[in-house]
């Protein structure tokens, strides 16, 4: 399967599940966006299983060397768990069993204690999340991984919105994804991006009514 076909399939799947929608949506930044992506709506065994397959394929295709996965609380917890399962069943992994870990929001003061759950953080660790907005969970994850003596290897997300932050009269030079990559020196791997959504809008006439609005939004806020 080609990279485009794989990314195109993910956009289609997101639309089918109502995770990706077109219209008018007031997003966290306060902007009125012509599309909305809510990975929390991948909320059944089938949909999370298929999502994990896309994550696993994106990671394998990236060529990044890694030893384990880390899922920041809370959204990253099921993503790391399911993707570890998908990797264990991926033909290109040749039977490698990838460990995973995640953190708690609050430290546990009994039992094993601490904030970390799962396999010990060691080697090259991929941080897995749904999207990157402010980059807060990445910063916290990088600190946790490094304090454990391990090395952050990459950040793996579902969708790169390719969008600059800040008010309209003072937009940032880079997107949140670009800023995270530059700040921590880490590759950010996405299953798909706004470019893939635009390609669908340009090629599928059933979505043509949304093409102009998304293109205008990208022209105003997007990065290349």
Write a brief caption for the model.
This protein has 224 residues and is of the alpha/beta class. The protein has helices at residues 3-16, 45-62, 76-88, 136-147, 176-184, 194-203, 211-221, and strands at 20-26, 32-37, 68-71, 100-108, 114-118, 124-128, 151-160, 188-193. The longest helix is centred in the N-terminal third of the chain and has 18 residues, at 45-62.
What does this structure look like?
The strands form two sheets. The chain has a six-stranded mixed β-sheet, sandwiched between helices. The protein has a two-stranded antiparallel ribbon with strand order 1-2. The chain has 224 residues and is α/β, with parallel strands linked by helices. The protein has a single domain, classed as Rossmann fold, CATH 3.40.50. Helix 2 crosses helix 3 and helix 6 packs antiparallel against helix 7. 39% of the residues lie in helices and 23% in strands. It contains seven helices and eight strands, in the order H-E-E-H-E-H-E-E-E-H-E-H-E-H-H.
